[in-house]
């Protein structure tokens, strides 16, 4: 049963004079209009898609092949599983970035081109010099910068652990966001077999099958949406689910990822995988006891949690630093190796 759902609320827009440093600390999504409108890459895109492709081709480093995701036009640009969910509806090819750009330019006037998508391509590796010509001051953050290039694509809702500032360079992008607590209504697919590294919603938000996925209607009530053009940006806080549609024949996005935690911290996904291994299949009363333990030592931990233990004897309950994290990591590896 496919049904048209009412339009969701708009993602709030930042005040035009708001300092970027303050916006990057947001814990809910924000659209930043015109943030990169002075970038040379954006000015080229405002002239034409071809001008944008030509600009990027000048900077391309073809010494390292990029990975292109390719699919027939019939997939509708949706990067997803095949019908069996044992594989995907696309294939990956290694190509020089300039070749991918030339191919995208060739298909600009073709009515039904194949989908071509270079995703999560490290900016400094594949387009050295882009950051020097298109600057953005993110203050003390040391982000990972990536570039995403393609034609008409639809990326299912997924989340990322880092915070994210996504800047549209060419074409339009439609962002549909869901708060983290809507995970149960998004029908998330496998954790360990994913189209692009992160688990994705199995619901096609453009045409939701509410007979198969009835709870998605509730997720949609909490959705936020915005359409961005060249020069616009969006702040996507950690763990917010986001689906991204690119409706134009050529589109480019540059994004910056960073975490609000020390570099030595493991990704929390490691804890989730360990919990699946050790906790999920316990009897209900044991899971409840472990939930209490996790609340005490992790989710509700404060200065009082270990205050009754002499400071020198607190071990892993002491505040972690790089050395303590290395020790704890070694202990975990030893425990797992015993199996």
TrEMBL record:
JmjC domain: residues covered: 116-273
PANTHER family hit by this protein: HYPOXIA-INDUCIBLE FACTOR 1 ALPHA INHIBITOR-RELATED, HYPOXIA-INDUCIBLE FACTOR 1-ALPHA INHIBITOR
Protein name: Cupin-like domain-containing protein
Source species of the chain: Coralloluteibacterium thermophilum
Taxonomic path: Bacteria, Pseudomonadati, Pseudomonadota, Gammaproteobacteria, Lysobacterales
């Amino acid at each position: 049963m496919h049904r048209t759902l009412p339009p969701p609320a708009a993602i709030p827009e930042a005040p035009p004079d708001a300092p970027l440093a303050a916006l990057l600390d947001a814990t809910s999504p924000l659209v930043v209009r015109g943030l990169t409108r002075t970038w040379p890459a954006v000015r080229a895109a405002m002239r034409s898609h071809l001008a944008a492709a030509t600009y990027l081709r000048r900077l391309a480093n073809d010494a390292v092949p990029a990975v292109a995701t390719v699919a027939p036009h019939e997939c509708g640009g949706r990067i997803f599983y095949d019908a069996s969910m044992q594989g995907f509806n696309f294939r990956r090819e290694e190509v020089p970035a300039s070749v991918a750009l030339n191919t995208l330019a060739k298909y600009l006037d073709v009515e039904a081109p194949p989908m071509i998508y270079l995703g999560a391509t490290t900016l400094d590796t594949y387009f050295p010099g882009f950051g020097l010509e298109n600057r953005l001051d993110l203050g003390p953050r040391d982000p990972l910068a990536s570039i995403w290039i393609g034609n008409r694509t639809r990326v299912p809702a997924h989340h990322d652990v880092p915070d994210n500032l996504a800047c549209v360079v060419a074409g339009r992008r439609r962002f549909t966001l869901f708060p983290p607590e809507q995970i149960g209504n998004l029908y998330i697919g496998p954790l360990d077999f994913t189209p692009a590294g992160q688990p994705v919603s199995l619901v096609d938000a453009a045409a939701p099958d509410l007979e198969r996925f009835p709870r998605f209607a509730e997720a949609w009530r909490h959705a936020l949406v915005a359409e961005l053009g060249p020069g616009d940006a969006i702040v996507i806080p950690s763990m917010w689910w986001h689906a991204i549609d690119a409706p134009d024949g050529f589109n480019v996005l540059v994004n910056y990822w960073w975490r609000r935690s020390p570099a030595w911290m493991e990704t929390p996904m490691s804890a989730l995988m360990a919990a699946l291994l050790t906790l999920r299949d316990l009897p209900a009363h044991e899971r409840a006891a472990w939930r209490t333990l996790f609340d005490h030592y992790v989710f509700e931990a404060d200065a009082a949690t270990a205050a009754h233990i002499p400071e020198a004897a607190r071990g892993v309950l002491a505040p972690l630093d790089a050395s303590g994290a290395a020790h704890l990591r070694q202990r975990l590896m030893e425990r797992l190796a015993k199996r």
